[in-house]
Write a structure and sequence with these properties.
By secondary structure, the chain is α/β, with parallel strands linked by helices.
Length: 599
Amino acid sequence: MVEGSPFGAQAQSWLAAFDHALTARDVDAAVSLFGEECFWRDLVAFTWNVKTLEGRGEIAAMLRANLAAIAPTAWRIEEDPAPHLADGVGEAWLRFETGVGRGRGVLRLKDGKAWTLLTTLEELKGFEERKAERRPMGTTHGVYRRERNWLEAKQAEEAALGATKQPYCLIIGGGQGGIALAARLKQLDVPTIIVEKNARAHDSWRNRYRSLVLHDPVWYDHLPYLKFPDNWPVFAPKDKIGDWLEMYVKVMELNYWTSAECVRAAYDESSQEWTVEVRREGKPVTLMPKQLVFATGAYGPPNEIALPGADQFEGELYHSSRYATGKPYEGKSCIVVGANSSAHDIAADLWEYGATVAMLQRSPTTVVRSETLMELGFEALYSENAVKSGITTERADLLFAATPFRVMPRQQIPVYKEIRKRDAAFYARLAKSGFQFDFGEDESGLMMKAMRTGSGYYIDVGASALVANGDIKVRSGVEISKVRARSVELTDGSELPADLIVLATGFKSMNRAVAPIVSEEVADRVGKCWGLGSGVANDPGPWEPRNMWKPTQQPGLWFHGGNLHLSRHFSLFLALQLKARMEGLPTPVYGLQKVHHKS
């Protein structure tokens, strides 16, 4: 199969040489197979970390440290390689094994040398997921005196866990991140409890503002094991998502505690165990997990800015996280502070209910029309056409992961040049309204902003037309200098009437959720989450998301989350790290991330 194409033969030759070098523990020979510019991104398989190695020197250092312990073998090409994706780059899908697991990878060759290599751990030997040919029988046929049926056994397990039996893993937060990880751990027989402070599973979605709809398409948003049905809408409303996630918890048989809040947690270095105080339905419960995972969404607590004179305000003032509906504000003057996704959605909702709305834009926003982004940003990997061409969700996730973050900006810049050209009339109307937009410091656009800082963008699903038409008034480059009884004074000296002020000012880093539960010291020890280390404003550090889905500077403390795509994809790699530790497998972490900034 591979021998049929010149590139296939080249890829096979490269892989044979790579396999031979690794087996011989010849690091120099292995590294010589990589080009001058080269990247090796590893998801747990070689580093027990989420780590990108840049250049031959970093690759050599990792192999010298970990090669003997990882013991990779059985490299093979999985299918016909694809020659010349762009710029003479060819792509091959790989399979391999390590001493403890089996993995999958993506190799991209340029001029016969490795340009990028992705290696991922897919399963642990002897601890494979109970699916496909390993799926449980569900019953034992025959006539005999059964101690318990399925329901009784399930109820007994739920009653025991957290009472007579301690969970190995405790997940704080029952959104998509928490349940995706718990579903993976369930298949790996890792005793796990999710604690969710809301009264119902996924009230965190239902309780959001009335108009909230996913801005990402359905093909991007599947959960592990159970995909959305074929008639699911491309963009799902929040309550529909909430219903689906609640159903998922039930069908996947997750140990999900509602009305349960994690009050306090402390780690014992000697026993390597947490003592966690939980208040469940008003009653105290003490849990003793080995691993504690914060799955509190993509961000931490609301970033509530202080406004001078706020105590004099006679209207309502609150953060966007508390906004529900514009119904009470018909005919009233409303100010939204901020100009990113939530600000646009809330401003549009207020306008729909007949409010007079002003948006205060403190810095430029990257705006992309949804239709254009679906075609130019998602079409190749996450679309109906991609599915028809054989790109499954899992395959799309690996292709996305195979591109190092250092390389992404240069690939995104031409995409956003085309977007700007195609939608020139749209951007001209926005500019005429006074709305300030940009495409990032390096013109790499929305996705890079999302990954670098998690802010500064909006996928237009309708609000931009209201801005361009003047239905939503925009004041750019100004802030509130003082709040009065029924108005605000801006930094340019002008004044706006106000019955409502919504602070769409974003959220703090996830590590800030650690501070009130564990301690300020531990929150500072792990440092901020997210960001890529791109060097742009507010994004120092290494070229991987900080602290997410991998070991942190605090033993036994993990962060998991993000949008539905990231929660789905990385839940596997975090689950494998936790399972390996539960089973006592060697997990030598290479390149444990340093703390680059605290708050």
